[in-house]
Amino acid sequence: MSPLFRRTPPRDRLVTLIRKPGCHLCDDAQGVVEKVCGDLGVPWEQKDITEDRELYDEYWEQIPVVLVDGRQHTFWRVNEGRLRKALTD
Q1: CATH number at 10-88
Q2: 74 vs 66: CA distance, rounded Å
Q3: Is 12 helix (H, G, I), strand (E, B) or coil?
Q4: Which residues are within 8 A (CB) of 12 and not within 5 positions of it... i.e. 6 or more apart?
Q5: Which helix (H) or strand (E) holds 18?
Q6: Per-domain residue ranges for the chain?
Q7: pLDDT of residue 9
Q8: How confident is the model at residue 10 (pLDDT cuts 50, 70, 90)?
Q9: pLDDT of residue 4
Q10: How far apart are alpha carbons 69 and 78 in whole angstroms?
């Protein structure tokens, strides 16, 4: 690997789950995020679109939305393998 390109260790990444209460897809996504982040030691947070107007305006049609380091990774359904790969590549 080139010294100019260093992968960010998983523990230095941040996963954000954007969700809303009563959303079964959000519950499913949270299960995947908890598992993958727990396995890899990646910190994660969740944000409720009903409490943040800016997030609501941007994502209300896509929730749940998963961000990795502030960039949109996926929405609706979270694929465990794809999230794991994004956090380790």
Answers
A1: 3.40.30.10
A2: 5
A3: helix
A4: none
A5: strand 15-19
A6: 10-88
A7: 82
A8: confident
A9: 52
A10: 16
Phi, psi of 59 (to 5 degrees): -120, 0
**Structure-token pair, residue 47:** 């944000």
Q: Which helix (H) or strand (E) holds 28?
A: helix 24-40
Please report, as a single letter, which amino acid is at residue 28: D
Say which amino acid occupies 26: C
- Torsion, Cα 43 49 62 34, to 10 degrees, reads 30
Neighbours of 69 (CB within 10 A): 13
Strand order in the sheet with 15-19: 44-48, 15-19, 65-68, 71-75
User: How is 34-89 classified by DSSP, letter by letter?
Assistant: HHHHHHHT--EEEEEGGG-HHHHHHHTTT-SEEEETTEEEEESS--HHHHHHHHH-
CA distances from 27 to 34, 64, 80 (A): 10, 9, 14
